[in-house]
């Protein structure tokens, strides 16, 4: 057994339903982006497995929802500790399964996975609204567990993005059916084992493997579901919303992005270039990435020269190597999708200033960091989410033009502003349509803050009380002062 297969063997390829491993009559192949090799044959769930998982979650909910806040908190904190204990194994497994950098998984991603449970396990204890009076009557607000939650998560940061949803859903007293992405399914499987070890009752956390059009469709159309949370593409969100509409199931969507990075002439140039290069993180497979670089004309030539130089120096290769800056794309099909964007750009006469195709030296699913300079605003590579290591750089004159360009797509997930003027930063942040605006920084996210997108980038917000508002049934109890 080779190294990749040994790591994949840490996780079961079967579903995790009611605390038990459940096989299916069919499987699908899970390939490592590192070299395209098959690392697991994973159970391919359909309607039967979806029904089993929801039924198990209903049973688990009846137990877990009766746990006190304190007991739920203690259990989730134990789970956070277990994740910390297994950080290295989880990091290595996820690197093999989705191709992101091992150093990032060790240093940032897996600690954040544990923090997701630790934060919501602690926040739960302070969840409160002061009682208030109405004509002598007392109003009391409570957050009651909603029921079975279906959580459908993406492949680009599998365990971190899953636990952004799992942690608050469980903290709220709900049970969960998690459907991870079929291109990176393995760490979700390990999480199932850890929940049992932490003391979470059987049936409270379930994992069903498979394809969205099969088991995912069965889950979101189930009338027993209390909440659906999804991170992924706009077309899939539309399909989920149509299914959920039949039962009027509440939804939370975090969808695509085509975020701007706005660099003004008074910006710290070193900082601006650093932030621009950060947009290649995870081989460009980050929904928040500010892939539309907007730079003020007076510094554009110098900025572009510096950015191209830095990009040329990025080291692409095996993500398990600590010196690697950019690893592979997630899957061969996704590489073909990225290539399609560049082929259509070429038909419009657009040529990248750097990159522009697969890395021939590495082969496989490695795509070179690519930058287009001065493409027209209406072209596809500026308007649509590519989800790969492809940046566009456009020049602008003046603040209002920058804002107009920033708001010129159908998305509104995030934005970054680089300037030495606080007044300008405040003005621009106030006018840009985005769920998160970073000023002179990138990708700083506190779980206390509301997170989500505007326009086609999403519906709803999660984080802090916003998560509990979604994953709970809020109730107001009004008590008369008379009759006791």
If you had to describe this structure to a student in words, what would you say it looks like?
The chain starts with a helix and ends in a 5-residue tail after the last strand. The chain has 2 domains: 3-255 and 457-477, Aldehyde Dehydrogenase, Chain A, domain 1, CATH 3.40.605.10; 260-439, 3-Layer(aba) Sandwich (Aldehyde Dehydrogenase, Chain A, domain 2), CATH 3.40.309.10. Helix content is 40%, strand content 20%. The longest helix has 22 residues, at 102-123. It is built from 16 helices and 21 strands. It is an alpha/beta fold and 484 residues long. The strands form 6 sheets. A 6-stranded mixed beta sheet has the order 9-8-7-10-11-20, with helices on both faces.
Integer count of domains: 2
Residue share in β-strands: 15-25%
Global mean pLDDT: 96
The CATH architecture category of the largest domain equals 3-Layer(aba) Sandwich
Key attributes of the depicted protein:
single chain, 484 residues, alpha/beta, Aldehyde Dehydrogenase, Chain A, domain 1, Aldehyde Dehydrogenase, Chain A, domain 2, 6-stranded mixed sheet, 6-stranded parallel sheet, 16 helices, 40% helix, 20% strand, globular
What is the structure about, briefly put?
The protein is an alpha/beta fold and 484 residues long.
Please give the structural blueprint.
Elements: H1 3-8, E1 15-17, E2 20-22, E3 27-31, E4 38-43, H2 47-64, H3 69-85, H4 87-98, H5 102-123, E5 132-134, E6 137-145, E7 148-152, H6 158-171, E8 175-179, H7 186-198, E9 205-207, H8 212-220, E10 225-231, H9 234-245, E11 251-254, E12 260-263, H10 269-278, E13 292-296, H11 297-312, H12 332-347, E14 370-373, H13 380-383, E15 390-396, H14 399-406, E16 411-412, E17 414-418, H15 422-431, E18 436-439, E19 454-455, E20 458-459, H16 464-471, E21 472-479
Helix pairs in contact: 2-8, 3-5, 3-7, 4-5, 5-6, 10-11
